[in-house]
Amino acid sequence: MIERLSPKGKTLLEEKRRRLDKQLRERILDYGSAVGSGGGDSYHDEQAYSIYAEIVTLQAKLNSINRFSSCQELKPPNQFEMIEVGHQVKVEFSDDPEPREEISVTILPEGDVLVLNEFYDQRTKFLVSDKSPIGRALLGKRVGEEARYETEEGNFGVIVKGISLADVFG
């Protein structure tokens, strides 16, 4: 169950909900017009059937968004000594034979990852859930410490280079 969402996540989710709600209302009107002009048989009317399928998809998306409606707002961390949910962490892969540039890992609740993921570059700036392998490994670590985690691709390690506030708080 998703319990917390950042202020930025809540704002974007509400904007998305309004957009989907508007699209749904428009498609319902289109469906009524298509059924009315097609003799009232939506099952055999290809256009009406296609609009109906879009309506079902939009309703499913809205239902998915509505499950976030009772989320509490994630409060920003008030310390930067130890990694918590809401921190942006600069890391470097410890197992990499060739040093790469540092990457940024922002640790947020899974609801934020679902809502905000499309806004992150995902090459040098990653958004991860606090429940993901790397998120769990980083929580509680300090600058200079190594976090080890395992995925289907193998075991990995990152060294914490810096801790700052995630850019989702204002």
How does this model look, in words?
The protein has helices spanning 7-37, 46-66, 110-116, 133-138, and strands spanning 4-5, 72-73, 87-93, 103-108, 125-129, 146-151, 154-165. A 5-stranded mixed β-sheet has the order 5-4-3-7-6. The protein has a two-stranded parallel sheet with strand order 1-2. By secondary structure, the chain is an alpha/beta fold. It folds into 2 domains: 4-73; 87-165, Chitinase A, domain 3. The model has no long low-confidence stretch (mean pLDDT 88). Helices cover 38% and strands 24% of the residues.
Descriptive terms for the model:
single chain; alpha/beta; 7 strands; Chitinase A, domain 3; 24% strand; five-stranded mixed sheet; 170 residues; 4 helices; 38% helix
Mean pLDDT: 88
* Helix fraction by DSSP (H/I, runs of at least 4): 25-40%
- What is the N-to-C succession of helices and strands? EHHEEEHEHEE
CATH topology tier name of the largest domain: Chitinase A, domain 3
Low-confidence regions: none
Kindly report the name of the CATH homologous superfamily of the largest domain. Answer: Transcription elongation factor, GreA/GreB, C-terminal domain
| Strand numbers in spatial order across the main sheet | 5-4-3-7-6
Number of strands: 7
Number of domains: 2
Q: Looking at the structure, what is the overall shape?
A: elongated
What is the straight-line distance between the termini? 25 Å
CATH architecture of the largest domain: Roll
